[in-house]
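Dear colleagues,

As part of the handover before I leave the project, I'm documenting each prediction I ran so the next person doesn't have to rerun anything. This entry is a single chain, and its sequence is reproduced below.
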Amino acid sequence: MIFDNPFFTEMLLPFLLVFVVVFAILQKSKILGEGKAQVDAMVALVVGLILIGVPGPRDILVGIMPWMAVGVAVILVFLILYGFVAGDLSGAGTPAWLKNVFMGLATLFTLGVVLFVSGLGSKLWDSFGGSSDVWMNVIMIVLVLGAMAVAIFGAKKKKD
């Protein structure tokens, strides 16, 4: 099948993704000038070709995209379930806390996927000794600092 061919998955799709995204950004921002679609297309073409010519970044992009699809599917399921309970989520009716929660989760998810796909996660894990004892200490310190922050900033809000 054509969809599992390495040329398709490791060359064509990453090239098209980067080309379209760079072209869209250049068109929207008008960095290279108004009405310069040909110039924008040439720059996007060069960036896309550079991407597929350099194995490291291409492999990271190819590794991240399936995880992005999983993340989008998880968010979709959450929004469907939340919509059953809360009702309308479109427009200004969406609570600010929900937007903040999604921003935080998306940031953590993206950071985790990039660390995992690029291999930096295992290097970071090894630099901390690679044992679960170290991570338990880190988690405990984060929890204590979080509790302190809630206590300090929560008290300031009550005084105001």
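DSSP finds six helices and no strands in the chain. The longest helix spans residues 55-86.

All the best with the project,
I.
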